[in-house]
């Protein structure tokens, strides 16, 4: 997983509430064997394309410079609905690396950290201010700084955000939960050695456990 430190990128405003995981990625590409890094063309297809399969020119991610956006400014409850890790894969394959929203679906929020997509929670008013800035100056770069936990748009003060410490560490180091645990294997081994000395009966092996 690629570490996330500081991102300078175009931000696309999409302030729709309750965009669920089925809207983010239909189940057919996931079960159809499309590799996760090739899911980009299927991401948000219900919003990006018309019924005849043509792009909807009115949809924000179909317009320059938002086609190159790596930051999405979203509405409340983004990623709600079914547990579908493919939703995160699809957004990342589309080129996104950070979603800024007032709230997220709980399972989607956890899946983001496992795959290197940064979910930033900010008050609705602040997300709307960022979206307004992105609409006024589409080519301007927004800055997401995970080192200082701030979001900044041009001509705006930096906006602080909070993350669980372990989640933040994982993104900064490019490690998922398992890799974070394995990175502390020396500490775990040392603890077990000390514990075996003080409570040897815990570690007794019987024939049944051999």
UniProtKB/TrEMBL annotation:
Has UniProt tagged this entry with the keyword Amino-acid biosynthesis?
A: yes
Which SUPFAM superfamilies does the record match to this protein?
LeuD/IlvD-like (SSF52016)
Spell out the GO cellular component terms annotated for this protein, sorted alphabetically and separated by semicolons: 3-isopropylmalate dehydratase complex
Keywords per UniProt: Amino-acid biosynthesis, Branched-chain amino acid biosynthesis, Leucine biosynthesis, Lyase
Keyword Hydrolase part of the UniProt annotation = no
Query: Which residues does the UniProt record annotate as the domain Aconitase A/isopropylmalate dehydratase small subunit swivel?
Result: 4-124
**Pathway in which the depicted protein is active:** Amino-acid biosynthesis; L-leucine biosynthesis; L-leucine from 3-methyl-2-oxobutanoate: step 2/4
Superkingdom as given in the UniProt entry: Bacteria
In Pfam terms, one family for this protein is: Aconitase_C
What's the EC number here?
4.2.1.33
Q: What's any GO biological process attached to this entry?
A: L-leucine biosynthetic process
MF terms from GO for this chain are: 3-isopropylmalate dehydratase activity
Q: Which reaction does it catalyse?
A: (2R,3S)-3-isopropylmalate = (2S)-2-isopropylmalate
Subunit and partners: Heterodimer of LeuC and LeuD.
- Function field: Catalyzes the isomerization between 2-isopropylmalate and 3-isopropylmalate, via the formation of 2-isopropylmaleate.
Q: Which NCBIfam families match?
A: leuD, PRK01641.1
Q: Its family?
A: Belongs to the LeuD family. LeuD type 1 subfamily.
Task: State what protein this is by name.
Answer: 3-isopropylmalate dehydratase
């Amino acid at each position: 997983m690629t570490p996330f430190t500081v991102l300078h990128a175009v931000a696309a405003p999409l302030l729709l509430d309750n965009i669920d995981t089925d809207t983010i990625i239909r189940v057919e590409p996931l079960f159809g064997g499309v590799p996760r890094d090739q899911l980009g063309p299927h991401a948000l297809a219900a919003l990006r394309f018309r019924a005849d399969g043509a792009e909807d020119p009115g949809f924000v991610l179909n317009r320059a410079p938002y086609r190159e956006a790596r930051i999405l400014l979203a509405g409340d409850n983004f990623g709600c609905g079914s547990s579908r890790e493919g939703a995160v894969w699809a957004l990342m394959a589309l080129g996104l690396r950070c979603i800024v929203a007032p709230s997220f679906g709980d399972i989607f929020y956890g899946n983001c950290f496992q795959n290197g997509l940064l979910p930033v929670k900010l008050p609705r008013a602040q997300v709307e201010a960022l979206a307004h800035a992105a609409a006024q100056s589409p080519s301007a770069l927004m800055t997401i700084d995970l080192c200082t936990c701030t979001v900044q748009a041009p001509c705006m003060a930096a906006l602080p955000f909070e993350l669980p410490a372990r989640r933040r560490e994982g993104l900064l180091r490019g490690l998922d939960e398992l890799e974070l645990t394995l990175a502390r294997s020396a500490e775990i081994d040392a603890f077990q050695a000390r514990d075996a000395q003080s409570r040897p009966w815990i570690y007794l092996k019987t024939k049944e456990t051999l």
